[in-house]
Amino acid sequence: MTEQYELLEPEKVAAYIDAHPDLAARVDTSTLDVTEVGDGNLNLVFVCQDGSGRGLVLKQALPYVRLVGPSWPFTPKRAVAEARAYEVHGRFAAEYLPAFYGFDAARYILAMEDLTDHRVWRGALTDGERHDGAAADIGRYVARVAFHTGVFGVEAKALKALVAGAISPELCEITEDLVLTEPFSGAERNWYQDELEDAARSLQTPELKAAAGELKYAFMTRAEALLHGDLHTGSVMVREGSTRAFDSEFAFYGPIAFDLALPWSNFVVTMARDAVLGRDEHGAWAATLFEELWDAFEAEFRSLWPNVVDPRVYNELFLERWLAQTQRDTAAFAATEAARRIVGLAHAPDLEALDPEPRAVAGRAVIETVKRLLLDRPETAAEVSAVAREEVARG
Amino acid sequence: MTEQYELLEPEKVAAYIDAHPDLAARVDTSTLDVTEVGDGNLNLVFVCQDGSGRGLVLKQALPYVRLVGPSWPFTPKRAVAEARAYEVHGRFAAEYLPAFYGFDAARYILAMEDLTDHRVWRGALTDGERHDGAAADIGRYVARVAFHTGVFGVEAKALKALVAGAISPELCEITEDLVLTEPFSGAERNWYQDELEDAARSLQTPELKAAAGELKYAFMTRAEALLHGDLHTGSVMVREGSTRAFDSEFAFYGPIAFDLALPWSNFVVTMARDAVLGRDEHGAWAATLFEELWDAFEAEFRSLWPNVVDPRVYNELFLERWLAQTQRDTAAFAATEAARRIVGLAHAPDLEALDPEPRAVAGRAVIETVKRLLLDRPETAAEVSAVAREEVARG
To answer: What InterPro entries does the database record attribute to this sequence (chains A, B) (predicted)?
Structure first.
């Protein structure tokens, strides 16, 4: 059943802010300029800026997919998950998140920092921009969150209550289906260019299905840390010297490698796009991002390790093995996310805007990379980058 | 803080039963004979039998360890976990459990079938008895529960609520500490024969700590199915043609291999005892139980597989790999449980009743088996049995 609550409208935003003293202290509502910038389909997003340049953003979850209407309800509880993630992640990694100003649980409205001076990382990569250090920032963000919200940073009994409290069945199901199943099983809602028919079908072998099954099983059973849960480059804002992860609606306790994998999968897509556009320098730079992200994750995680809450059997040798396993799992999860961006329901604009012929070449390179990541199982960021470089060069 | 509730006493049992019509219908309280048979330290257990031979058992959890008193509180919530396990497991594997007659949540009293015509499997093995088929029954029990309460048998969204509802932090911590940490890290409360000092210390290498860490991490993060959670041979009753698992106070969502591992660890201990007693025939029989249990588990699991709720990527190849991985994990978890029975806080009477010299020989054989299971990583029940046979023959 669709939940009923009052939706915000631009002309009512100032009054809403005035009614919430914590927010009213941040902007002068008498000079407020309000712009709705969400896609309006799943969330309403109001950028609020006053005459003196101060601002904040209000984001309200809709209880249904607006394009379809109330007949496709979509739980607004995802805003609870996002608020939880900002609140919990903010304790350990505030510099990598928008400042969080509060959550209105009755109307599913999040209030947070105005980051309109940043741009979405996906768009920047698509345009051929370089943001040096963004990948490393995300690596450090995941490391902090992974350490401080999981087995190594939280006392065992307390952790169990956190895990139980952060379940998110509806949102997890979306990832389970769209990322970890449908690209490999086929589905009515899959779509892709006609030219990619053979490539898409080549993903549906028993061997690749089993590999996807293994990752899906890990996603469904391994509660390692409070993940962002949807950390693709469209969930990251960048600006010189600043990297912020947002849109953590998919937050839940899952396998840490999944958060590392989504940016990796985007680097593959960026490389494929750069290759067909002849943007060699940018492509070569994108190929370095796998290691930039992983190395920063690993260094940050190692720096936190001396604080492990239970060092009795979580020793140095365990840490080495755990890091190696997490790196392997990252490569495999990255493959599933890359696959869905070519053949699944939810593509990303990186390749969609290309002309049909280069678009098909790029799509095929991504698919071939996916298959090698799942069948050959490269173990390190460098090996994953090498596989992607080989496949996009084949074009 | 210790919970306050009224404890049962033998002379008040008949009145208690009369006050509960479901129970009163099962026995004639006017001719009731009540015997308290629990160790009286953690639980009160009343066997109630009437003049016509009908009976039932009441089990009440104490809120503290009676030997120490209220200064060592011990959550009676474990009775909730046990009731949940009987109720849930009973839907799929009733023939391997005591019939469950209900739970009094206010006083933490479980009512169940009187199984005094059975005996505890540990005792039977210790005495050199053979109960053919008991190991296979336990394998089938674990298979049913694993399939029907986990990813393969429960729809994804419903499963997440089940997992969250079955958290059991205090009881899990006991296993995490006593089984998966202390034998390998050393602990004040570890104890063992003086003769085993070197063997006990040999468990505390970085390599074995890391192996224990890996298993502990799996135990703490992998929510695969609603486990029994403490399925050693002291939690199993046997009689010709009947095998019943009880005492599921440790039930929680964890790695399936853990439930398979505890009986395996007991088979190692039984073999070590048989060897020093020269009970070769019984020892050779015990060596077959690893495969008996595993093969029954695997066959039952395969028979359920066609009902997998989501066959899209959980295909046949996935199943083969999942079974192989589960078998490997079983061997490793078995090692940790075997180790704690020699050097940890909670030994079992299997070896403790031996004379000091054979007891040390048997203990050493178990320790050497533990080390090989964790370092050489045998992959199958047959290989685990072979390792245990070699080590107990060395004595």
So the answer is: Aminoglycoside_PTrfase, Kinase-like_dom_sf, Methylthioribose_kinase
User: How many Å apart are CA B168 and CA B181, to the nearest integer?
Assistant: 18
Residue B266 has pLDDT above 90, yes or no: yes
DSSP class per residue in A76-126:
TTHHHHHHHHHHHHHHHHGGGS--EEEEETTTTEEEE---TTSEEHHHHHH
Q: Please say whether the beta carbons of B195 and B226 come within 8 A.
A: no
Q: Is A108 left (phi over 0), alpha (psi -120 to 50) or beta?
A: left
Q: Give the torsion sign (CA, A91, A93, A99, A105).
A: negative
Q: In this complex, do A206 and B316 lie within 8 Å of one another by their Cβ atoms?
A: yes
A69: left (phi over 0), alpha (psi -120 to 50) or beta: left
Q: How many C-beta atoms surround the C-beta of residue B65 within 10 A? A: 14
Q: Three-state SS for B227?
A: strand
Average pLDDT (A91-115) is: 98
Best of B313, B314, B316, B333 to substitute, by most chain A Cβ atoms within 10 angstroms, is: B313
Instruction: Please choose, from the candidates B385, B388, B342, the residue with its C-alpha nearest in 3D space to the C-alpha of residue B199.
Output: B342
Mean pLDDT for B286-299 is 98
The confidence score (pLDDT) of residue A1 equals 60
**Token code pair at residue B328:** 């490997």
What local confidence, expressed as pLDDT, does residue A73 receive? 81
**Residue B48 dihedral angles phi and psi, to the nearest 5°:** -120, 120
Please enumerate in sequence order all residues whose Cβ is within 8 A of that of B179, keeping only pairs 6 or more positions apart, or say none.
B336, B337, B340, B344
Quick: pLDDT tens for B361-384.
999 999 999 999 999 999 999 999
B344 Rama sector, left if φ>0, alpha if ψ -120 to 50, beta otherwise = beta
Q: Which domains does chain A have, with CATH numbers?
A: 10-112 (3.30.200.20), 119-394 (3.90.1200.10)
H/E segment holding residue B236? strand B236-239
Shortest distance between the Cα of A114 and any Cα of chain B, in A, equals: 35
Could you tell me which of B100, B78, B86, B104 has the C-alpha nearest to residue B141? B86
What would the DSSP string read from start to end of A316-365?
HHHHHHHHHHHHHHHHHHHHHHHHHHHHSS---HHHHTS-HHHHHHHHHH
CB contacts of B305 in chain A (<8 Å) are: none
Instruction: Show contacts of B390-395: CB within 8 Å, 24+ apart.
Output: B391/B272, B391/B365, B391/B366, B392/B271, B392/B272, B392/B274, B392/B275, B392/B283, B392/B362, B392/B365, B393/B275, B394/B365, B394/B368, B395/B272, B395/B275, B395/B276, B395/B361, B395/B362, B395/B364, B395/B365
Q: Which two tokens stand for residue B153?
A: 């048998």
Distance CA B191, CA B193 (A): 7
E strands, B13-99, in order: 33-36, 43-49, 55-61
pLDDT at B385 > cutoff 90: yes
Model pLDDT for residues A276-320, shown as the tens digit of each residue: 999 999 999 999 999 999 999 999 999 999 999 999 999 999 999
Those residues with Cβ within 8 angstroms of residue A92's Cβ, 6 or more apart along the chain or in another chain:
A144, A145, A147, A148, A149
The DSSP output letter for B135 is H
Contact between A144 and A93 under an 8 Å Cβ cutoff? The reply is: yes
- Report the residue of chain A nearest B179, measured CA to CA: A313
Residues A168-220: tens digit of each pLDDT: 999 999 999 999 999 999 999 999 999 999 999 999 999 999 999 999 999 99
Chain A positions touching B182 (Cβ under 8 A) are 312
Interface probe for A, chosen from B77, B155, B177, B312 (most Cβ of A below 10 Å), is: B312
Sheet holding B119-120, edge to edge: B119-120, B236-239, B242-245
CB contact under 8 A, A206 and B317: yes
Q: Is A151 within 8 Å of B314 when comparing Cβ atoms?
A: no
Span B74-91, average pLDDT: 96
